[in-house]
């Protein structure tokens, strides 16, 4: 499918007066005025008596950072607004960039309008309501069930979390009632390296009581700000009329093409002029990018006629501690950071995001897929489908002119929680889902046939068999080797799809593995949340994507760790698959992508920042991984060379013996004559020695070590007992994704030994403090559907009760960590015992269910 066309930028900047774009034009400012009214609001939740002062952007869901059942309901906002004057010859509007997920607006006690949808802008005409002294009231509701999303793996942040604007225009102006857009739409019906043509389509409104003669003037500037041509189109409007005025530019010879590497932007200023006296009435400005693209089932993606691999990430918009109430600078910073690691593509998931993000994609150079948030299942709710279609139109019209956008999406994993085909309700749900998809696909093409349509599927063949594969491109969200299956099953799935549907373009729209900086393993495995397994996972997936032409590209899930109030796992309320932590600090694995994707610069990174403090045996070799695109790398430890190695798959691992204490590591090499080096400090401590007063902490049932980010104590991986050491004598290792309450060190309790009857620690005679950690998981909590069954493990069907004996003395009788109905709660109990036999022997006698043990900590007194 060939999209031989380029696109343009339509953003909040397009609303600003021409004075803000003086670089491009000498004309006097238009009469449009636009300003934010973000400060000085009052807020309260529904039912609260007390108002509190807030500024916008604002969300009322910071509770999502601390609890699963965050507030979903109504929030009330009000503001006093004083104006110097009200000009009877002007029109006045409120523009709200986003209010989640429904808003009702009053001005001076009268209804100004309402909006359904939490991620798109809307504009209300308040001309007849506004006066010098005003009170604006906005009620926002993030619990509406007729507005998507209803189920998703992200938090539905409530509030007015983007800007609110007051706009005034003359009586003749661009249409302000066009789904939150400016009413000006640009395209480039001719776009190649020899010539380019700009097509301008503008809706203009005359709110005066008489007919008026007007002109539409379009000035086109090149990427350096030079005026190339001016096109003038006369027209007339009757009183109260809105009409479409179109204009086509002359051919622009040899246009500078827009690419992510060189995002050349032209500018078009579109002006309404009074034909009688020459007064400027209204004006907007849009940036234009000349380029064309295509998706091909065999050759992948092409840009400007050349093969081009899409390399990107998915991005949610929250950042602690403000949630989604972020400033424009955050959006621009995020795009710069993506570009820094080599991204040329972004999937804006799973909803339209701020204009500032799209502006940055245009200006810095990121191709984009944008979508509306229809996720997991289509409900049978009156009004839901109509609202979905409206949200789709809003997204397309508001962001139509962005050169970055190549794809519109409208469903994500829509069958994830739908009933299975063996259930009686399946046919109804299936038909309802397919019908909505057909409706949205048709409307999408009516709105914009120049981009591709795309849908993201989870790993189920049902999308093919029931007719949901409607879009131009199939997006696959694949997690083999994480939630299910093994790593090679990833490429097996894609090859099977490509073989069976050889004419369907494919993009890997999601793939990722979680990681927790506190968790490390030299024997990493799926779903252990170790930093090391995430690295292993991406080092398997990414080369396959890069080296197979039929895959158009990918969007890694995700750019940052982000909030999901309902998530549990090792970091409750966080989806931790990010390449960056939520504060935008890069994980080591981000440099693997940078090494592979940035062939324009040398990349060299010692991938041990996430594991800069280690514990091990004396003289035991430690792994030091390096991500790099250099041909050869030398590692220097405390001034002594550890040799040189040639990387494979953009990484290499040195095996080194670290001395006790803090050491310096230096990696160095050169690329194309440029010398580079990377330096870091690493700390190595010996395994605890109880005889020396050290604490021995063991992460029972786990293959990973865990370091508390509060105490900095490291809990060592579990092992079976050998004479002279420590470990379990028997039992079965188990794990859960359920959140453990009343602890900040949840991962210790999320793994355990079940059916354990004995644990032994050989130690010299003396008095010891022995601490046992347990949590009863026989009542696991409900998990997100996105875990694909990964969180269904159960310890037993009943509470576990047992006796505990340490060094021959009974310390607990008929004990259960779930006493007083405290399931999923952390239990820590310390005992003072005397070891007379050279072994701290801990025994468990089952009474009901199975004895369990999650953690063990011992120190000599």
Write the layout of secondary structure elements.
Elements: E1 2-3, E2 7-9, E3 33-36, E4 41-45, E5 52-54, E6 74-82, E7 90-96, E8 102-107, E9 110-116, E10 122-125, E11 133-141, E12 164-170, E13 172-174, E14 184-191, E15 195-206, E16 212-221, E17 227-237, E18 242-248, E19 252-253, E20 266-274, E21 280-289, E22 293-296, E23 300-303, E24 306-307, E25 310-314, H1 328-340, E26 345-348, H2 355-364, E27 367-371, H3 384-399, E28 405-412, H4 426-447, E29 452-458, H5 462-465, E30 473-477, H6 489-500, E31 506-510, E32 519-520, H7 531-547, E33 551-556, E34 562-563, E35 574-575, H8 590-597, E36 604-606, E37 613-616, E38 621-628, E39 633-637, E40 640-645, E41 651-657, E42 661-671, E43 674-686, E44 696-699, E45 705-707, E46 714-717, E47 726-728, E48 732-735, H9 746-749, E49 751-754, E50 758-762, E51 766-774, E52 801-806, E53 809-815, E54 827-835, E55 839-848, E56 852-853, E57 855-860
Parallel strand pairs: 25-26, 25-33, 26-27, 27-28, 28-29, 29-30, 30-31, 31-33, 37-43, 44-46
Antiparallel strand pairs: 1-22, 2-21, 3-12, 4-5, 4-6, 6-11, 7-10, 7-12, 8-9, 8-11, 13-15, 14-15, 15-18, 15-19, 16-17, 16-20, 20-21, 22-23, 23-24, 32-45, 34-35, 36-38, 38-41, 39-40, 39-42, 42-43, 44-57, 45-46, 47-50, 48-49, 49-56, 50-55, 51-54, 51-57, 52-53, 52-55
Helix pairs in contact: 1-2, 3-4
């Amino acid at each position: 499918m060939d999209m031989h066309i380029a696109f343009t930028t339509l953003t909040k900047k397009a609303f600003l007066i021409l004075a803000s774009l003086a670089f491009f034009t000498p004309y006097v400012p238009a009469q449009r005025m636009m300003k934010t009214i973000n400060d000085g609001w009052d807020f309260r939740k529904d039912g609260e008596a007390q108002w509190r002062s807030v500024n916008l952007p604002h969300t009322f869901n910071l509770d999502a950072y601390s609890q699963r059942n965050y507030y979903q309901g109504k929030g009330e906002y009000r503001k006093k607004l004083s104006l110097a004057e009200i000009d009877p010859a002007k029109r006045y509007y409120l523009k709200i960039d986003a209010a989640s997920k429904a808003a009702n607006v009053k001005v001076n006690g009268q209804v100004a309008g309402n909006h359904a949808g939490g991620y798109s802008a809307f504009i209300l005409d308040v001309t007849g309501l506004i006066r010098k002294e005003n009170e604006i009231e906005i009620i926002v509701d993030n619990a509406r069930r007729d507005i998507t999303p209803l189920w998703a793996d992200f938090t539905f942040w409530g509030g007015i979390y983007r800007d609110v604007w007051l706009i005034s225009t003359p009586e003749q102006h661009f249409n302000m009632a066009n789904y939150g857009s400016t009413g000006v739409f640009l395209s480039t019906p001719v776009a190649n390296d020899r010539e380019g043509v700009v097509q301008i389509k503008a809706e203009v409104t005359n709110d005066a009581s008489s007919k008026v003669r007007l002109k539409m003037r379009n000035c086109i500037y090149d990427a350096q700000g030079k005026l190339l041509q001016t096109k003038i189109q006369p027209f007339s409007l009757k009183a109260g009329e809105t009409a479409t005025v179109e204009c086509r530019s002359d051919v622009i010879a040899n246009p500078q093409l827009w690419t992510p590497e060189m995002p050349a932007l032209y500018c078009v200023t579109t002006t309404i002029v009074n034909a009688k006296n020459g007064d400027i009435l209204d004006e907007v400005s849009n940036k234009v990018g000349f380029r064309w693209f295509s998706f091909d089932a065999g050759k992948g993606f092409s840009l400007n006629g050349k093969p081009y691999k899409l390399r990107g990430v998915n991005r949610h918009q929250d950042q602690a501690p403000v949630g989604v109430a972020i400033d424009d600078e955050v959006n621009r910073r995020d795009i710069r950071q993506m570009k820094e690691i080599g991204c040329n593509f972004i999937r804006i998931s799973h909803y339209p995001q701020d204009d500032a993000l799209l502006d940055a994609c245009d200006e810095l150079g990121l191709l984009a897929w944008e979508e509306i948030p229809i996720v997991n299942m289509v409900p049978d709710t009156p009004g839901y489908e109509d609202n979905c279609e409206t949200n789709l139109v809003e997204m397309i019209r508001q962001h139509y002119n962005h050169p970055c956008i190549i794809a519109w999406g409208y469903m994500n994993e829509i069958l994830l929680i739908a009933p299975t085909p063996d259930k009686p309700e399946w046919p109804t749900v299936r038909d309802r889902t397919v019908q909505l998809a057909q409706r949205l696909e048709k409307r999408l093409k009516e709105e914009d046939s120049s981009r591709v349509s795309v849908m993201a599927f989870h790993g189920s063949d049902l999308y093919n068999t029931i007719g949901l594969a409607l879009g131009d491109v199939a997006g696959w969200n694949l997690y083999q080797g994480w939630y299910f299956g093994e790593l090679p099953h990833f490429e097996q799935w894609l090859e099977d799809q490509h073989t069976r549907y050889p004419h369907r373009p494919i993009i890997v729209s999601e793939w990722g593995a979680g990681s927790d900086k506190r968790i490390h393993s030299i024997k990493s495995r799926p779903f252990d949340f170790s930093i090391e397994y995430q690295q292993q996972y991406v080092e398997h997936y990414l080369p396959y994507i890069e080296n197979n032409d039929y895959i158009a590209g990918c969007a890694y899930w995700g750019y940052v760790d982000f909030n999901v109030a309902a998530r549990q796992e090792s970091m409750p309320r966080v989806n931790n698959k990010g390449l960056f932590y939520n504060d935008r600090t890069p994980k080591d694995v981000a440099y693997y992508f940078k090494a592979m994707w940035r062939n324009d610069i040398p990349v060299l990174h010692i991938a041990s920042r996430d594991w800069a403090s280690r514990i091990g045996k004396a003289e035991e070799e430690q792994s030091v991984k390096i991500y790099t695109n250099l041909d050869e790398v030398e590692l220097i430890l405390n001034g002594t060379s550890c040799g040189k190695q040639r990387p494979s798959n953009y990484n290499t691992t040195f095996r080194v013996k670290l001395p006790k204490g803090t050491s310096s590591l230096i990696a160095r090499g050169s690329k194309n004559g440029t010398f580079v080096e990377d330096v870091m400090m690493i700390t190595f401590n010996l395994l605890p020695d109880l005889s020396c007063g050290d604490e021995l902490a063991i992460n029972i049932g786990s293959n990973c070590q865990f370091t508390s980010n509060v105490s900095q104590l490291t809990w060592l991986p579990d092992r079976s007992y050998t004479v002279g050491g420590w470990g379990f004598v028997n039992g079965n290792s188990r794990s859960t994704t359920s959140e453990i309450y009343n602890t900040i060190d949840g991962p210790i309790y999320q793994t355990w030994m079940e059916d354990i009857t004995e644990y032994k620690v050989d130690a010299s005679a003396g008095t010891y403090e022995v601490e046992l950690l347990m949590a009863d998981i026989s009542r696991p909590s409900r998990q997100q559907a996105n875990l694909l069954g990964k969180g269904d493990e159960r310890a037993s069907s009943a509470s576990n009760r047992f006796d505990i004996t340490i060094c021959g003395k009974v310390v607990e009788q008929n004990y259960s960590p779930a006493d007083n109905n405290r399931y999923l709660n952390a239990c820590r109990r310390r005992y003072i015992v005397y070891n007379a036999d050279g072994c701290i022997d801990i025994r468990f006698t089952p009474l009901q269910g199975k004895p369990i043990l999650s953690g063990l900590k011992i120190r000599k007194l």
